[in-house]
Every structure is written in C-alpha cells, then in structure tokens.
Amino acid sequence: MAYHATLATARSRAVVAESRHLLLTVAPGALWIIVFLVLPSLYLMSVAFMTNGPYGLPEMPLSLTSFQQLAGQGFLGWSPGNLMTLGRSLWQTVLSTVLVVLVAYPIAYYISQSDQRWRPIMLLAVVVPSWTNQVIRTFGWMNLLAPGTPLAELAEAMGMIAPNMGLYPSNFAVTLGLVYNFLPFMVLPLYAAFEKLNLSLVEAAQDLYASPLKAFWHAVFPQTLPGLLAGVVLVAIPAFGMYVIPELLGGGKGMMLGNLVANQFAGSANWPLGAAGAILMLIATFIGLYAMRRIGKRLGGGEEVVI
Amino acid sequence: MSAVDGKDAGTPEQHTTRKPAGARAPGGTHASESVSEHVGESFDDNAGENLGDTVNESVGESQGANADQPALPRRAASSIQLKGLHKRFGNEVAALDGVDLSIQPGEFFTLLGPSGCGKTTLLRILAGLEALDEGQVVIGGRDVTEVPPHQRSVNTVFQSYALFPHLSVRDNLAFGLKMRAVASREREVRVAEMAEFIKLGSLIDRRVDQLSGGQRQRIALARALVCEPDVLLLDEPLSALDAGLRSQIQIELLRLQKRLGMTFVFVTHDQQEAMVMSDRIAVLDSGSLQQVGSPREIYERPANAFVARFMGHANLFDVTARDDSRSDAIRLTTPLGVLTAQAPGTGSLLLLRPETLDLRRRPASEFERHDVLENHLPGRVQERLYRGSHAEYRVEVAGVSVQVVVNNRGGQLPEVGDQVDVVVAAQDLITLGE
C-alpha cells in the first residue's frame, strides 16, 4: 500500500514537473498568439456587431446593420455591388488558382526531371522574383500593360481592347497579376511531390495496359495530389484576400473583397462593415478548406492528404 | 503476326471469349510443336543443345505443362525470341551486349546473374519499359520491338511490387482489366476468381498499405496474372521476403506456373532459387550470356569459370599438363597432383564438385601408398562444419585447400587434423574454360 502510494506521489510529482516545464516552453508563443491574434480577432468580430458612428468608429448599441450593408442594403435601397465583389473575389480566386496549377504543373515536372545540378538554380529562378516587394512587382506589371506598350498594342491590333486603352485596369490584369504572384507557392510543393515520384508505379500502370495519358492520370497525378492540394491552399487563401494586386491593376470594376474591407477602415470609414467583410472572408476560407479536405480525402483514397 | 492478340485488341468481347489453345498459331513460318513434355525434363534430355540455336527455334504453341486441377482457364503459352539485343546506358559499359535467346512456350525460364549483369534490363526490354539500341524482340510470334509497354500482352511482377497505394486490393487487381476496357461485370468475376485462386479473398477490400510483405507479393502476382498475359515477367519478386516465406512462395509460384502453363521469365541473383524453380536458366554476366541450360547442366557442367563460381563452386584448379597417351583415360596434372579422368573436356580449369568427392581415413603407416591408388589425394582435414545431414570439410592437399561435402550416413566422420585421402571418381572430373 505504502509503496503504491509513494509511487503514485512520485508519478504525480513527475507529471507536475513535466507540465510546468512544458508550460514554460509554450508560454511565449501562446502569449504572442493570444495578444496579437486571438484578442484582435475577437475585437474585430465584436466590432462587426456594433453601430457605425459619425466618424466611422464603432459605437454601441449592438446591431446587425453592418451585415445588412454587406449584403447590399444601403440608405439608397439595395445594390448588388458588395455581392458582386464577393462573387468576383471567388471567381478570381478559382480562375487564378486553376491557371497557376496549369502553369506550375509542367514547370515542376520539368525541374524535377532536369539534371541534378540545375535543379537548385531553376528553383531559385522561380522563387527569386518573390524576394522583391509585391507592390514593386505589381507596378512592373502596370508598366508592361500600360497603353502604348507592345503587349497593349498587340491586344489592340487583335481587337481585344479599344484604341489607346491599356490592358489595365481590368479583371484580366488582376488575374494575370495573381497568377504571376502565386506561381512559386504552387511550383515548390508540386516540385517536392514530383521529386519523390515513385516511377515504378508509373511503369506498373504502363505494364498494366495504361496508355501514357491514363498512366499519368492513374499513377502520376495521385502521387502529386498532396503537393497539389498544399499548393492550392497556399495560393487560393491569400489570393482570395488579396489587396495590392486588385488595388493597382483592377480599378473600380476589378475590386476584390480585400479592397472592400480595407476601404471600410480607411476611406469610407465604416469599421463595422469592414469587420463584417472580414468575418465573411474567414467563413468563406473555412468553407474552402473544408471542401479541399473532402476532395483530398476522396481522391486520396480515404487518406488525409491536406492539412 | 498472330491473328488475335491481347493488348491492341482491347475490346470486351475479345476477353469474354477465351481463346482455345492453338488459336494464336503464328502464320505459317514456324512449325507448330508441342512442348508439354518440356516441363519436368530430365538432365538427359539435354535442353542445352538448343544453345546457340536461337534464331530458328520453332515457335511452338501448346497448352503448356500438365496440371492437376486447373482453377483458371488455360490459354496458349507464348514463346519468346530475342535476337542480337544491344543496350547501353549513357557512356557506361554495355548493359546488354549481343544477347540471343529463345524461350519455349510454357517454360519457367530464369535469368540469373550478379547485380549489374543486365538481367533486369533484359526483363524490362521484354516488358517494353526499356528501349533497345539494337536487336529484335518477338513474343508469341509477333515482333514487339517497337511496341510500347501498354500494347504488349506481357505483365510484370515488380521487385518493389509497385502496388497502387491509393487503391484497394480489389482496384489494384482490376487495374489492368479496366485499362483494357473489360466490361465491369466480367472484371468483377475475374478479379473475384483470381482473388480466390491466389487465396486472398478476405483481403480484397483492404488498402494495400495495411498488408504484410507476403500478402503484397501475392497481390502483385495476382494483379499481373488476372490479365492473362502471354508471358509473365518476374523481377526478383521474392527478394524482399524473409527466408521462410520465401521458400514457401517459391514452391507456390512453381506449382502455379505448372498449373497455368504460362511462360514465366524470372529474374534472380540467387542460384539456389534459380535451380529450384527453373526449367531452364540463362546465366548472364556483363551483359552477355554465359550459359543457357537446365539447372542440372548449369550446376553440374558449368560452361566456364564464371558460371562455376557463380553457382558456388570453389574447387577450381589449373590444369598444368595433360597426357592423352592412354586410350581409356586422360591424365591431368594439377596443383593437387596427377588425376585420371575419363572425358574431362578440353578446358584449362579442373572442377571438383565437393559432393562428388569422398574422404577416406587411413592410418599413418599406410600413408606412403598414395601413389599406388588412382585418384586418391592424400591430405589433412583443416576444418569441419557439421550440418547434420552432411558435413562440409576443408582439406589441405599438397598445400592447396579443397572443399569436400560428405553425407552423414552414420559412419565415421573424419575429425580436424586427421590424415585422409580425398577420393574422386574418374567420370566426375570435368574441365572448363576460363
């Protein structure tokens, strides 16, 4: 009895010591997250349920006005503007993610099949542009797409734009900017997937009568799926909330949800509406992640392939 | 060119009507010949006489080997002709350097050699996974040299098994049939049949990563067999299994092949495995054939020193002089002494198989008699490894170490340090080239 009691005491003492040690290690990080993420997020959420004051600052009483405004209800009656911005954001996200995948897939494959010596250099070439500030790179695109540039003149000659109009501001320019900006985030995880590609599975598929196309679909694609889904998460979520690119390349008709939210905190001075927009973005993102997970599970044969 | 062939005619109808034996007889150029007696041939049949006679080998179509209870419908086995195969990877030495080979329908044929000898390359060329620099591949009378892998009626059991990890056992088995557009109902029937045949019925809905090595091995085999290929290729399929399971699956695989009568081409570096399983063995080294023959021929009459060493023979001695003056025997001078042989061949190396040698103990007083008795080599036991059924000896004869295996018949086994005679029969002495 006494022995067991002693043992139990010793054990619980060890547990206490261990958890104290654990707490000390985790505390700084936890504190950081609580102070700079959890509390501000809670504050932001609460702001969404307040009333907009005369100077754009949130005031009591609590109300759902900001959500009504987000849905398009203004003092001039209902307008579809905000919902169209949401729709545009979703569309731009899907379109640019698909395009990024289409561009990144062959690049990643090509790099993975290249000579061992060249691979780091090629990867570097993909990544290096993202070391420059995003704003500066976007200004670069403005110069490339402005009226009178070869690209704009080409588009003009093909009758795609009116004379003396640049290729920006436009939704096309935003898509282009998004694809360009997020390419490295897709190439890198895909490259990682391609690099550990089990070629014997591809050979097995060929041996079992799969044509090259079918061998790709049944033996290559499933192996790259984890990388692909990781890339989609890395691209789609930031693209959905993108601010700089639509701001600079999109103009009034290219606005995305990020710009809408930012405007409420700056120019339009309606913090509750901005907070409601932020909540909408969070919800949309979570739905997207959940859908990805389901898709990944299905394609991956029941195994977790993402997050 | 055969009238009906598997892969390029991938319609469901063609798979539902299973072809009768002989339906795929090649058009006229080759004589049809039954080779069912091929299996279980004795050493005296001397299959090795076909060596070198590769090009004009008859392309026989037969039902293959006799089987007791065929669980799956038998189809015509296919022959394989390989002519002048050359393959080089980059600037390295040739992986295959002029290989000519003819494999009979229904034969269990083994490619044996050390790693890097080109045996796997040869198998991959048969599968179509590797392109040839030069040469011709004919399977079942059809020239498939330029045919891509997915259009060859050949399936492979890969060394790593290469099962699709994202698919269930059932979907793995059905893969080949699905790619061939076999109707889903027939697919199900054939997969279920195969699962039962190979005794993995209960595993059918598992994911492959939940299975043991032996189970995966079976699934890899079943996945290839369910497609009923003309030829089954096996790339060291047992190398990842532990010894016990390995010998069990060796026997299963052998019985399976006899029951199906399918042509198997098997790659291994294990000479024991090759001898147990094969109808014929081709020994490869540095991309060229060293010898082709039955296991007994390869083991008992190796063509050269490489084959002999690879088959585990250690007793190879230089022949320094030979005396043909006697009409009934040839006297060979070796480092061990002078030996009398009956028909040793004309090689410069003497091969003494340890199990053909015998040890006789004798008292030291008789030790001077050794020049009287023919083929009695006086020596001293250096080492004895007792193995129960037999004992392995290392005996020093004239300063040279000789391996001897003595069966344990219950009599006396000489001890370390004993003076013994190593006795060899004149007819067991053979010589080989370098």
From TrEMBL, chain A:
Membrane topology: Multi-pass membrane protein
Gene3D superfamilies, alphabetized: MetI-like (1.10.3720.10)
Subcellular location: Cell membrane
Main location: membrane
Family matches, as CDD domains: TM_PBP2 (cd06261)
InterPro entries: MetI-like, MetI-like_sf
Record domain ABC transmembrane type-1: where: 86-292
Transmembrane segments: 21-45, 90-111, 172-194, 215-245, 265-291
Keyword entries, A-Z: Cell membrane, Membrane, Transmembrane, Transmembrane helix, Transport
Domain of life: Bacteria
Pfam families (UniProt xref): BPD_transp_1
GO cellular component, one term: plasma membrane
The keyword Lyase appears for this protein: no
Protein's UniProt keywords contain Transport: yes
GO biological process: transmembrane transport
Family: Belongs to the binding-protein-dependent transport system permease family. CysTW subfamily.
Identification of the protein by name: ABC transporter permease
